[in-house]
Specification:
With 241 residues, the protein is an alpha+beta fold. It contains twelve helices and eleven strands. The chain has two domains: 3-118, no CATH class; 128-240, no CATH class. Helix content is 39%, strand content 24%. The strands form two sheets. It has a six-stranded antiparallel sheet. The protein has a five-stranded antiparallel sheet with strand order 7-8-9-10-11.
Amino acid sequence: MSDYARHLYPDLAAASGLGAALQAELQAIGSGPRVSELDKAVNLVVNARVESGSRFSQVYIAAKERLFLFDCWSRGVSLAHGATPSLTYLARVINRWVGSRCTPADLAAEFGFVTPEPRAGVYERGEEVEDRWQGYLSGIGERFRELTEIVQAAAKRPELRQLFPYTSLNMFCFSRCTGYPFTRDTPHVRQLPGGGYEVVGPDGRVLGRGNGEAAADLVVRRLPARCGPAVAGTAEELDQA
């Protein structure tokens, strides 16, 4: 830890790291979750993580001022973030998030330095699948013009409309869960340089080629058995269910 960093974070230096210092603060308020310090070998005390069930928070320290930056995740989705110079308040907000079922709005009402993510309410209401589809349908021409045809075709198939869509590079993908990491057991579609699309299976094999309508039909035919609506959570949580 540099002398400058020690000046900004004497409490962390005294505790030999962010993880240990945050753990002590959590214990002081009677909080049980354990803190795991990340990338310590590379970044010394730069970041840490506190997790309980499907919720977790990641913490980072600023380099040029005393400031703890954190985010609040639930079921694979970042729902809020914030920053505070106080290690004590950091521990309190993390304890509240991982130790309860409070909403991002609840957290922001209790702690003025917390800001809900713009689409947090969509996830809280369970509307994230349709919201994501509407976002692609209204804006795909601006961001990924080459995927416009497949997005519009896929949106007309109920079997695909119930899944959570996402893009990866130049590919249009479908997940059976709405949190990250997404499932990777459904086909995805990528544009061919000369036009049209190529449907690729989860194992990387090319399943076929065609226009948007043909590609969407092929994805439907090659979906996993009993492929139902996308559920809240991550691929790992879905596997454990």
